[in-house]
Design brief:
It is found in: Endoplasmic reticulum; Golgi apparatus. With 894 residues, the protein is α+β, with helices and mostly antiparallel strands. Helices cover 31% and strands 35% of the residues.
């Protein structure tokens, strides 16, 4: 009895090993022909899952599969032949009816005869243990047709046991997980792990970026080690983070079913698979199972020159406030990405002066090697006759969505050369800083050009060739924000002269909390409390702001609160407003401030009753459960009532991610002599100056000077018209995501989102001695277009979904001060104009022969204008709003 049990166990063990050896993957029976049906379908929609609202198509055919050879050394080494027959193409949406693009057309008319013949030529698949060893086809077949065969062949690659492994199939080299349950096997492919060469790029900033989700699940039903049915579903979903109505989804399905088996050909004898393949057909060649890239032929498409001529009127300066200008800009950037250097250069050289700046914006935004070579050949930095074009090129580089090392290397090379304008030289260095930061954000900090740029900036700060270059290198560091520069910033913040110290401190303000260490805070506390030297109010208040925004300690908050009352009059009011704003807006430091305010010495009437006109206020522009837009305005006056600094910021938040949308700072100093007033402490010897500095989409721009020095001031007062000074103007490619997908069915998909804007930020400062009044004005005008485009292409039929949104908006900030008495009369206004908001949806299906179906939808609404509060006392003060002096006044405005 025991002997029988032992023999039984040995038999079971050997049988189990045998089954395991034979069932690692699919196994075909000898001399059998397997007849199957196959279909692959794809549809696109906006993620709502309604088939009637989708566009797409289905390709179906019959499939014959036969085993040609099995290795004498092992049953799991097989060569199979796959033959496609009876091809058909139809709509996924059967409700299309008479509008179907396939109605009345036979497969040869849709696919084309030569493509159909290629599709029906058999392919060979060499499988070892269920995995594809080689894929054999004929040379010079159309790539799109070969990809359809690859998609079918990849379904035959699988294993019958559970586990995780890497497989190479049409999607690339991917991580896959198998879950085996009796006669059913589920394969889950991690699409984000697939390694396959495909073009694409994205915007690193999460606020301006997209969220992508991709899944792939294939279910096999197995009988006798072969498939009875295979169902595969692959989904790709895209959503723009801050505007979630720009969204789309691709659903791709494959279905393979066994219909019958019948007698098939005998196995070919032989030990080597190569000899077998040669015997079948010597024209077979091994080709990659991975999907290959193809480009569809574009019939009737405009040339680059024709395209430019069709849109150039939209890009005239007078039309830049319209959404049509931005839409034309985005489409032309797309075309430029496929253009050669010579084509681009030809258009640049032929264009007239008024439209040339917009053309430079587009060429630079294309961000291809050809477009960069063309624009660098076109611009002459040694000449001062094209300063506007040079500046537009540089700012477009700073806003580049996915800059590469070559662009940075080109700017470094230009910086080492000669310039016709020192302003352009400074701008080159400032933009070098912006590129350093963007490349570092994309894991490019160790690139040679980045290392060289860092050395250039640090070297310029350690030993500047000219004293005036210090500001230039600080502005570059304000963009680059690499931690190696912090020790130098502390040095300039503590020991530098007024403007240098202020710039160094505002640069520290842009660093994240992890970089504001205890050592940095000690230096900032010394600046604020003037432990080592007297500092200007602008420097001290910035130092306090950095401390309060970066996890301040109990004693740091307490010492700042205790200083209120001992400061110059307007600085007292400013710091009090900062503290009140922290509490009102629940800024993170508010918890610590509330703790300190429990002490009577810090929280008393004498301290919190300080009067003045300086203020700080933060509020919401828009707020939703997943995002928020905020604005903040802080405005500091001198003791004599003249504006010292106004600082307007707009931020966009999305979860933990933030984007510094814009900052406009207007500064003035040394104007007290004009009204015979006494300067504040530490500001007795300041030169007369007024200017404006701006940050736009996290990029610091070169500051603009209204006047510098007393003589320049008097000249501007006598001659200026009060017209605004432009800080930045142009077309910006802000959102830029492009992704080429290889669907496992063999079809090619593209997902693209572009967002552009035409922007004009200008500012002015007006000053009247006669009326003892000053006015600052910052005006933002923008036209915005965001466009999403999702397509699936088989080379003979294409389906697409386009979603876009656009608006034209304006935001204006005005501060008016009347300093004929104290406290001054101050009116602060920030207004947003009523703005149109338009949404478009276009869905289409199109044959390569030209026949197509198009569905369009449009929705329009108005975003109501609004007036934003700027500080608590504003409504009372604005009751005393006064009219500006008449134009005939001889006092002069600037």
């Amino acid at each position: 009895m025991i002997l029988l049990v032992v023999l039984f166990l040995c038999f079971i063990s050997s049988y189990s090993a045998s089954v395991k050896g034979h069932t690692t993957g699919l196994s075909l029976n000898n001399e059998r022909l397997y007849k199957l049906t196959y279909s692959t379908e794809v549809f696109l929609d906006r993620g709502k899952g309604k088939l009637q609202d989708s566009v797409g198509y289905r390709v179906s055919f019959n499939v014959d599969v036969v085993l040609l050879w099995r290795s004498p050394d092992g049953d799991d080494d097989q060569l199979i032949q796959i033959t496609i027959k009876d091809v058909n193409v139809e709509n996924v949406n059967q409700q299309r009816g008479e509008k179907s693009i396939f109605k009345g057309k036979k497969p040869p008319q849709i696919i084309r005869k030569e493509n159909l013949e290629a599709l029906q030529r058999p392919v060979l698949l060499h499988l070892i243990h269920g995995k594809v060893k080689e894929f054999y086809s004929y040379q010079n077949e159309p790539i799109a047709i070969e990809n359809l065969k690859r998609g079918l062949a990849s379904l035959f690659q699988m294993q019958l046991s559970s586990g995780t492994t890497n497989e190479v199939d049409i999607s690339g080299d991917c991580k896959v997980t198998y879950q085996a349950h009796q006669d059913k096997v589920t394969k889950i492919k991690a699409l984000d792990s697939c390694k396959i060469e495909r073009s694409g790029f994205t915007t690193p900033n999460q606020v301006l970026g997209v969220t992508l989700k991709a899944t792939s699940v294939t279910t096999y039903k197995i009988e006798d080690s072969f498939v009875v049915a295979v169902l595969a579903e692959e989904i790709h979903a895209l959503r723009l983070n801050f505007l979630q109505t720009v969204a789309g989804k691709i659903v791709s399905k494959q279905k393979l079913e066994l219909k019958t088996t019948e007698a098939g050909p005998r196995l070919l004898p032989g030990k080597q698979v190569a000899a077998i393949i040669k015997a079948v057909d010597s024209k077979y060649v091994a080709i990659p199972i991975m999907g290959q890239v193809f480009q569809s032929e574009c019939k009737g498409c405009l040339s680059l020159s024709e395209h430019w001529q069709s849109i150039r009127t939209h890009l005239q300066p007078d039309n830049l406030s319209k959404a049509e200008a931005v839409r034309s800009f985005l489409t032309f950037v797309q075309h430029l990405r496929t253009a050669k250097k010579e084509e681009i250069l030809q258009i640049l050289k032929a264009e007239k002066k008024e439209v040339l700046p917009q053309l430079v914006d587009a060429v630079t935004s294309a961000q291809t090697p050809d477009s960069l070579d063309a624009i660098l050949d076109f611009l002459d930095f040694k000449s001062d006759s094209s300063i506007i074009l040079q500046e537009r090129f540089l700012y477009a580089c700073g806003f580049a969505s996915h800059p590469d090392e070559e662009l940075l290397r080109a700017l470094i090379s230009k910086f080492k050369g000669s310039f016709g304008s020192n302003d352009i030289r400074e701008t080159v260095m400032i933009i070098i800083g912006a590129l350093v930061r963007k490349l570092c954000q994309n894991e490019g900090c160790k690139l040679k050009a980045v290392v060289e740029a860092k050395k250039l900036i640090l070297g310029g700060l350690e030993k500047p060739e000219k004293k005036e270059d210090t500001m230039m290198y600080l502005l570059a560091l304000k963009n680059a924000l690499f931690p190696e520069g912090i020790p130098l910033l502390l040095k300039y913040a503590e020991a530098g002269e007024g403007p240098v110290s202020h710039l160094a401190t505002t640069t520290l303000q842009r660093y994240g909390a992890p970089f504001i260490t205890d050592e940095v805070k000690k230096a900032l506390n010394r600046i604020y409390h003037q432990n080592r030297k007297v500092h200007e109010k602008t420097v001290r208040t910035t130092a306090a702001a950095v401390i309060l925004n970066n996890n301040p300690s109990y004693m740091e908050v307490k010492n700042i609160l205790l200083s209120i009352g001992e400061l110059p009059k307007e600085m007292n009011k400013y710091m009090l407003s900062i503290i009140q704003d922290i509490l009102r807006f629940e800024i993170p430091a508010s918890k610590m401030v509330r703790r300190v305010l429990k002490e009577m010495i810090a929280h008393n009437y004498d301290r919190f009753a300080k009067t003045g006109s300086s203020s700080a206020y933060t509020g919401y522009i828009e707020r939703s459960p997943h995002s928020a837009s905020t604005y903040s305005l802080d405005i500091l006056y001198s003791g004599s009532g003249i504006l010292r600094r106004s600082n307007l910021n707009i931020f966009q938040y999305l979860g933990e991610a933030a984007l510094h949308g814009s900052q406009v700072v207007i500064e003035a100093q040394g104007l007290e002599a004009l009204i015979a007033a006494t300067p504040d402490e530490g500001e007795e010897n300041l030169d007369s100056y007024a200017g404006m500095s701006a940050i736009l989409f996290d990029v610091q721009l070169r500051p603009v000077t209204f006047f510098s020095g007393y003589s320049d001031l008097m000249s501007k007062m006598l001659s200026a018209s009060g017209d605004p000074v432009s800080v930045v103007k142009g077309l910006i490619l802000l959102i830029d995501h492009s992704q080429e997908l290889q669907l496992q069915s063999g079809l090619k998909a593209n997902m693209e989102v572009q967002g552009g804007l035409a922007i004009d930020i200008s500012g002015s400062m007006e000053f009247s001695l006669w009326y003892r009044e000053s006015k600052t004005r910052v005006k933002n005008r923008v036209a915005v277009v965001i466009s999403g485009d999702i397509t699936v292409d088989s080379a003979f039929v294409k389906a697409g979904l386009e979603i876009s949104a656009e608006t034209e908006a304006g935001l204006e900030f005005i501060s008016t001060v009347q300093f004929s008495q104290y406290p001054f009369l101050v009116c602060l206004q920030m207004d947003r104009d009523t703005a149109p908001y338009r949404q478009f949806e276009t869905k289409y299906e199109r044959l390569s022969t030209g026949r197509g179906y198009v569905s369009r939808k449009r929705k329009e609404s108005l975003i109501a204008g609004s007036e934003f509060p700027l500080h608590q006392e504003n409504s009372e003060m604005c009751k005393a709003v006064f009219a500006p002096p008449p134009e005939s006044s001889s006092s002069g405005w600037f």
